[in-house]
Amino acid sequence: MTGMKGPGIFLAQFLGDAAPFDTLAGLAEWAAGLGYVGVQIPCDPRLIDLRLAAESKGYCDDLRGGLAKFGIEPTELSTHLQGQLVAVHPAYDVLFDGFAPAELHGKPAARQQWAVEQVKLAAKASSNLGLSAHATFSGALAWPYVYPWPQRPAGLIEEAFAELARRWTPILDAFDEAGVDCAFELHPGEDLFDGATWERFLAGVNDHPRARILFDPSHYVLQQLDYLDFIDRYHDRIACFHVKDAEFNPTGRSGVYGGYDNWIDRAGRFRSLGDGQVDFISIFSKMAQYGYDGWAVLEWECALKRAEDGAREGAPFIRDHIIHLTDHPFDDFASSGIERDAIRSLLGLSPHP
User: Keywords assigned by UniProt (predicted)?
Assistant: First the structure.
């Protein structure tokens, strides 16, 4: 039977200017040495020529071949930064300019057009790489109004989500043409950050078959959402999985909003795997129960621990939590082997006519 794949590792937090973290080959060899068998690749020009990957199957075959030398597969491509720029409220224009090429800074319309093209290219590149899912962010128009004070005017949120759907529907259509799922990481700062906002968006894109979820329980801990119930509700839309830990320790001083403190002082903060409060045994059990057959990918972020230690500890943690699905019932040894007529007899019924 098929089942969850892994362990994989998201390379975004480890990409750097010094070897081995400055090239895809270097990162792949490093990851393999830690026990990973897959890498989630951010669409950064230092790691992948996105346009060439969208246009050339040969380039993608070579990329796969280069990873295979180290026993590594690509799990998904990621356009988190580009997806963020599909929808940006003007309050964040300056801060998000850094996600785009310098020539687009101060040009929000051109920046948005570039972002849409990048995500569409990622759909084709994912197809050429033989990938079934892609990881991204939704961007945000309504986020500055997340708290209803001052009172939100009627129709504000509805129009924001209608516009978000208008922007993403052609992109989702491009993913459909490529045969790839587009998985949104539900994340504060995006307009899609919980189940309620996901449902708003899904209705806006008419239940588009390629609109999927990247499940990351750490963001639900920090919002105090029930991440196990989330899986029960939305498991049929989960296409990617970030294995990321977090903790929430509220006090009389600070809670969900964090008091503008730095990460290390916030009530809710991300932690290395095993150091937080996420119930991964139950998560992996539910994912297995519902037949999730995608990748389990470490996304490392921690306010305390060194990245190198988190990466080293992540591979065995994920590997030990993956449940390999059984191909027969556990109580087969006690099977009675009774035929249907005998079953009807046990129920006091006449043999089947």
Answer: Isomerase
Which residue(s) pair with 184 in the sheet?
136, 213
CA distances from 327 to 1, 3, 282 (A): 6, 11, 21
Q: Locate tokens 């068998």: which residue?
A: 37
CA-to-CA distance for 176 and 172, rounded, in angstroms? 6
User: In Å, how far from its chain's centre is CA 261?
Assistant: 26
Asked whether the beta carbons of 182 and 127 are under 8 A apart, the reply is no
CB 295 within 8 A of CB 75: yes
The β-bridge partners of 247 are 269
Q: Other CB atoms closer than 10 Å to residue 80's CB: what's the count?
A: 19
* Max intra-chain CA distance, the chain: 82
Q: What is the pLDDT along the chain (353 residues), one digit of tens a residue?
A: 579 999 999 999 999 999 999 999 999 999 999 999 999 999 999 999 999 999 999 999 999 999 999 999 999 999 999 999 999 999 999 999 999 999 999 999 999 999 999 999 999 999 999 999 999 999 999 999 999 999 999 999 999 999 999 999 999 999 999 999 999 999 999 999 999 999 999 999 999 999 999 999 999 999 999 999 999 999 999 999 999 999 999 999 999 999 999 999 999 999 999 999 999 999 999 999 999 999 999 999 999 999 999 999 999 999 999 999 877 776 665 666 788 888 888 899 988 76
Tokens at residue 133, please? 């899912």
- The CA distances from residue 116 to 110, 119, 174, 219, in Å, are 10, 5, 11, 25
Contacts with 2 (C-beta within 8 Å, 6 or more apart), sequence order = 293, 325
Rg of the chain on CA atoms, in Å: 23
Q: Which two tokens stand for residue 247?
A: 């903790």
For 76, how many CA atoms within 13 A lie in the half-sphere containing its CB? 32
Give me the numbers of helices (H) and strands (E) for the chain, helices first please. 13, 10
The superfamily CATH assigns to domain 5-346 is: Divalent-metal-dependent TIM barrel enzymes (3.20.20.150)
